[in-house]
Amino acid sequence: MNGPIIELRGVVKKYESAVNTVTALNGIDLRVNAGEFVVVLGKSGAGKSTLVNMLTGIDRPTSGEIRVAGTSVHALGEDDRAAWRGRHVGVVLQFFQLLPSLTVIQNVMLPMDFANRYPILQQREWAMYLLKQIDIANHAHKLPSAVSGGQQQRIAIARALANDPPILVADEPTGNLDSTTARSVFGVFRDLVRQSKTIVMVTHDRDLARQAQRTILLADGEIASQ
Amino acid sequence: MQVRWYKVLYDLLSNKKRSALVVLSIAVGVLSVGLATGAQTILSRELPAGYLATDPAGAKFITSPFDDDLVDTIRRVPRVRDAEGRRSLFARFRTGPDEWRSVNLFAIPHFDDMRVNKIHPVQGNWPPRDHEILIEQAALGTARTHVGAEVVIRLADGKERTLRVVGVAHDQSQEPATFEGSIYGYVTLEWLGEPRNYNELYITADPQVRDLAEMRQIAARVRRKIEDSGRVVLATSVPEPGKLALQDAVDGIMVVLSTFGVFILILSGFLVVNTLSALLGQQVRQIGIMKAIGGRTWQIASLYLGMALTFGLLGVIVGAPLGWLGARWLAVFVAGIINNDVADLSISPFVLALEVGVGLLAPLLAALVPVLSGARVTVREALSDNSVSRGQFGSGWIDRRLRSIRGLPSTWMLPLRNAFRRKGRLALTLTTLTLASAFFIAVISTYASVLRSIDRGFQYWGMDLILTLNRPHRVARLEQAAMQVPGVVRAEPSNFVQVNRAYADDTEGDILLMYAFSADTSSVKPDIVEGRWLLPEDANAIVITNKFLDKEPGVKVGDTIRLKVLGKEMNWQVVGIAHLMMGDGPTVYVNMPYLASAVGLRERADWLYIHTAQHDSASQLLALQALDQQFKLKGIRITSTMLIADLRTTIRALFDAVVVVLMIMAVLLSIVGGLGLMGIMSLNALERSREIGVMRAIGASDSALLRVILIEGILIGLVSWLVGCVMAWPLSQVLCDAVGMAMIQTPLTFTFSAAGVLIWLALVVALTSVASYFPARNACQITIRETLAYE
Prior knowledge:
- The complex is a heterodimer.
- Chain A contains 7 helices and 10 strands.
- Chain A has helices at 48-56, 78-88, 104-115, 120-133, 149-160, 179-194, 206-209; strands spanning 6-16, 21-32, 37-42, 63-68, 71-72, 89-92, 167-171, 198-202, 214-219, 222-225.
- In chain A, helix 3 (104-115) crosses helix 4, helix 3 packs parallel to helix 5 (149-160) and helix 4 (120-133) crosses helix 5.
- Chain A starts with 5 loop residues before the first strand and ends with a strand.
- Chain B is of the alpha+beta class.
- Chain B has 4 domains: 1-56 and 244-386, no CATH class; 59-237, no CATH class; 388-460 and 646-791, no CATH class; 465-614, no CATH class.
- The longest helix of chain B has 44 residues, at 644-687.
- The model of chain B has no long low-confidence stretch (mean pLDDT 87).
- At the A-B interface, helix 2 and helix 3 of A face helix 1, helix 8, helix 9 and helix 11 of B.
């Protein structure tokens, strides 16, 4: 692909409330090239999660354009964005968000099921491969409640990789972990970068942020520095 | 299997109690539909088939005596397929020491070669020989006899005969013996001393004759043939071809039951709505995640619709076989009430398909709105849902009214407000419970209305006993003989004849019952709704009834109708219309002196209405026994008797059977209501787990929490009771009308049952207490740590 894999142009996001209008993002211009590991830093309320929502298509901008992996995401409807997201973007959230009623391996297989990718047997093989990559394979048939927080986050990462997306977007993936586990999980992301994945990570941890290739500082809905 | 369906499976199994409640609720709905529809299809197939298998008479003629020659002649009348003569006579049957009941005996010439109105052996020997009798199956109870017993009958001439009951027969051509406490017996002719000839002629027509008008034409031809032979046709009956007399009543009751069944199924769907709404609410974050990882709205919706379908399937598996079994029981029960048999209890595949169809479709339809609404939540909304507990309170109109209530302790205020936090859910739960309330009270009110209608109907009868005599006797003689009996306060001689309406085209209508009374009679008190009652000076005045108008619609006060009375056509002017609640058929009233004179019975009567001082069954029986002895001494023969107290008991038993079936449906409805409430209270307690944990953390005891949840449940029950009482009024009227029209072709006298209101109040408090207690107890058993960690 020529050009950046992620491009935001003049993205504005405003939220209307009963009291006032809040501008969460105020004219964001951002380019991320394929294979980059980008960290977005900022204080609470800076607009980091909103930026993640824009990149992943979870939310739509009030104005501006968002092109990710060749698709004008801002122009898609809610359902089309979900389908697009399943194939092109792996999402990792702060609160692991694994489905409690499915086993570890079933959680990893779920995105493949939604995307209707691969026959079921192949889904199972690929999911087991992903779990082995993150050393969770021997917990494959357990429920999420039976594994630790760090393991759950690793599983969430494996799930994000289920459809082999070119891009991973992680919103505070280590926010709920102790420092040792956080470093371990961060290491997984570094490995993924080596595998040519593009990673955009939101974090408030400056120490971990220093390990990324590029840092974007977000303040009051604007890029303060990058 | 695709991995997404494992989520459905685990969600179903993760809360087995909740799933079981929903499945049970759907099962009750499927059972109810299957019960009513299955029974209806069996009855609509078997009753006509069983009836037609008896070769029912297309027409019946009550005539002066005739023989086989006339029967052969009639068989040659065009479009007459077959004909048969029988002798019918009334006698008295001893049912106990000094206790006699009327028996209608039929002497059948060839038991093994019956061609019309066939009767079938049920038990014992067939055919009866001399000194033997068969009893109709439905009359065994009234006759207080059994196969092998010896019975005594007293004929019109006073002679008594001993017969042995050798068998039981089934006769579908007669009104069920249980309806009036009648006895039907089947005997041979000669040994009784009766002449070997016939007084009733039955014919069947070609199978192509299905039209009543055409049947009447054939009947007219046969009548003329009989009259040409020098006999007199006293009355003609031409029923609707091929139709069982009580088919309309059965159909009416089955429609009411089917309606109940559909209602119950709809209400069971409400629990599906509430359960899935709550589940979707609880899993909103999971929905957000599924969308975040690529799940589309239709994929997520299909998961929860799949769950609804699974509930439905399980409900069908449980409910359909029970509905099938229940349908067979109900069909036999209803057929038994009208003295019919059901030969084939197989259920039509259509009914099974219907049960499966509604069992799957109802929960699916019920789930559509909550599922589509829940599945449409956006990822951002779903993932930002962080409230302590769901259900907003405060801004709505109802909330503001509740907030304005002052002075209530918190143990009442909290459950009162909690009940209204989920207004949609509350609305569905209340709807189910309210309808259960309304229907329960409506059924009790219907029963009360039945009792009142019977009372009102029996106000029509001012007398206590009806005696039918072997022949007309002088009126003065009858009065004098009767008044000498202790306990008798009044004796009214009367006449009764069966007549037919004569039309211009020489055809006749069906049999009408003509009662001739003195204008000042107190033996009957008909409710005159138009025109007037008879006057002493009336000549050919006639008062018709609603029962008459059912057969001969369109006749008005002032019209002249032509009736054939004992073979003689006479014009009668309609002076009044009376409304009969009860009654044995299409009744008309005429002035006794005029009728007696017109038919050559001046100052004579063959019916006697006796009024006794006491009106209970025992007193009536004593009076009858005394009259028996007195009349025997005077040489007056009684051929049949009727005690009004016995008639009341018989009619009440008939209605009781119908009310039992209605009560079964009301109970099923209450079960669905209770299941619904239990499910909702469980959901409410589960959703408020964190809130309960917070309350316990700040000092609330288990008993206080239990009280809050219990009171919430009972409050919901009380609201449903109140609203249900209001709804029950119009519903009761509709149900009363439906039952009345089905059973007696007239609406019941409506009575709203206060007892039903109080009974249901007690039941609903008990039901809601039980439904709330278990979820409350479960909520209190979870630790504070668990509840605060609940997500």
